[in-house]
Amino acid sequence: MGIVSRRNAALAKVLARRSAQAGGVAMVVSLLCFLIVLRLPGDAAYRIAAGRYGYDLVDQETADSVRAELGLDRPAWQQLGGWLLDVVQLDFGRSLVTSRPVVEEVGYYLLGTLQLAGVALLLAVAIGGSAGVLAARRPGGIVDRLTSTWVASVRAVPPFLLGLLLVVVFSAQLGLLPAVGHGDAASIVLPALTLGIGLSGLVARVTRDSVVEVRQSDYVRFAHTKGLAERWILLRHVVRNAAVVLVPYLGVQAVILIEGVVVVESLFSWQGLGHAMVHAVFWRDVPVLQATALVLALLIVAVNTAVDLAVLWLDPRPRRHEVAA
Amino acid sequence: MHRPTPPRLAAALSVGLLALSGCGTSSGSEEESDTLRIAGPFEVHSLDPAADGEVFTRLQVVETLVTSDIQGELAPGLATTWSSSSDYKEWEFELVEDVTFHDGTALTPEVVVAALEKAAAATASPLAEVPIEHLTAEDSSVVVELDKPYLTLPAVLTHYSTVILAPGAYEGDRVTSVIGTGPYQVDRIELPASIETVRFDDWRGEAPAIERVTFQAVGRAESRALMAVSDQADIVFGLEPAGRQRVDSSDGVAMESGLQPRTILLKVNAGHPTLKDLRVRRALSLALDREAMAEAVLREKELAATQLLPPSLETWAADVEPLTQDVEAARALLAEAGWEPGADGTLHKDGRPLELKLLTYPDRPELPALATAIQAAMGEIGMKVDVEVSNSSEIPAGQADGSLELALIAKHFALVSDPLVDVAAVFAPEGSDWGVMNWSSPAVQEAIDSLEAGASGADAEQHRATVVRTVQEELPLIPVAWYRMNAAVNDRVEGFVMDPLEANWRLTDLTWAS
């Protein structure tokens, strides 16, 4: 069997497995989400009314009219069934609070989150990756020890504090960047930097360790022996093999980034999914909550698929199997 | 051996650096010097006036028929004058002539009627409570016919849910754009956090000095404080104590503040076997060290409430004995009521311990903190209070099924410009979700009825005093603290005044400092 077809078979296997997973995850997440909202304390109609009109204007009467309007007094299975039926037809409905289409609403927040997570990941790889590679040049050397200190300190500082520190320095003192906001290019820098710096520590650590390991491997030593120039060794052997370790790791971090940015989003008034989800829980905005959870779940599957594919492409080992076979 | 930097890493690094350096240039405030930048905690989730209309009245994009002036008195808005029949069942509102909406269409009585009908259909709007029988468009006015006399109708029409939008603002029943008549028109909206407005050239009044206004919702108070001190916003609303200190110690920005017509109070089930005894309610009130609580939680001891209605509601400021702390007197009252110390330090009567459940909700972060302070104060006089921090909907639910004992709530007393509307609702004899429970007083009811029937002058003053005094004596609601609203205002802005009802930010009165 040829290399190419073997690769394609592997690719098809990955995609098939992941799409089955996506369907399953979507189902489970929707059900769980619905059940959890059902179990939350308090009168959902009242919370929705408060989200819509503000606390000062809401009383039992307003809550009752919201209940009647949204059919919240129907049995739970009917509400869930109705929602599932709509989702199968790709109709996510309207937000109970804002009355806007859920697709529009969640799309807006998803874009915000993806932008933020993307830039943060880029910064983390830039900062952490270069620190890791530099540290790996002389394990135990001064750069390595400095990197270790960096890793420990950025892991120890909570994002909330780090964000405030960055705002105080770059925004309040130096006046270089806007403290909060969403929309223009400048306003993404501080939130992304907050997340990126927090993440860069671990990226540096993982990069360093895998680069050190790869450098000591037989194939790199062989490459040296056969007289390959150092930059080619680094590019074709070290970076590539180290990336096989780093990429899945980054995949996991991307997922954490997407889900774990609530604090940073609220600190910087950045409109993202974390923000949307907190509000949806708070206001019992079930359609938005369901759609957000669904999008997050599918995003995790998508990221994992991307990681699988990237590793498949990066990892030289399957080719070797081919030779053995 | 020389080892070059790996090209991929170098590329990633330079992208990062570019992102960093590229941003420094676009964030300068110079280019925005003709824009007034406002930041506040409130997000905007809907364009519907009944839901989030207040931000658009505050930004002066939309207008109501009646407004309130800086003293909280009624003033003309889109209606120049209004009058009623002698039985207060028919009201006529004369409209300002030649008003155009931001889309160029004319404001007609028919448009006004259509907008008011929509507001009256929204349950959350105070207009829904008004017994409207018929709305009619006349030549240059709007006539409101009522089932029953309703004296406070003009005050209800100051509420932001009753703003008049152009017909083009609606698609079906949904509001899809905010087209009003105010001095500013919407330039761009990005829900939920950002609104930009620009001066409306065809406004009927004097052109405002400030040409462009941006509003940004910023959820965290820390972020807002930093914006205020670093010149990233000109007016910043809703600062917390730490932020206020920061602003106070910075140059170029100053704090402005005013009392809000809102009171944090203990809602009492006056039908509860323990709490129906007035002596117990008084003891409860006497045990509270309100100044210490206000100082510790709200960081300002002047906010300790000495009576239910805050002094900013001037017409309701009757002369009453202020509520103070007196632990000994509280103990004596409980002893007089038959409560005797038990073995565990809690008071007992007929073998029953003095135990009460206090419900509150976390939506206002100061409420749970104050609830625990109240719990400690009650412990001092031998009353065991269990604090339950729950969902705000538990309070109306507890009212409905009668299970509520005590609840710590924050109640606004001037949702429309005349506090009478809220006072009447709070003391409704059948009880109210955010007011009294199982308590009524013929004297209070009579006074409110007379006020609603049109008492004026000295008579009205007498009736208001009756309400305030009776409530102070009988304590169906036990006041704890008042609220203060504040804003950090940059020195480059002149003429800022805090509106007592927060109905309008009075941007048209602002000028740039020369």
From TrEMBL, chain B:
PROSITE patterns: PROKAR_LIPOPROTEIN. The keyword Transcription regulation does not apply. InterPro entries: Peptide/Ni-bd, SBP_5, SBP_5_dom. Keywords: Signal. Residues 73-409 form the Solute-binding protein family domain. Gene3D superfamilies: Dipeptide-binding Protein, Domain 3, Periplasmic binding protein-like II. It comes from the Bacteria. Residues 1-28 form the signal peptide. The keyword Zinc-finger does not apply. This is ABC transporter substrate-binding protein.
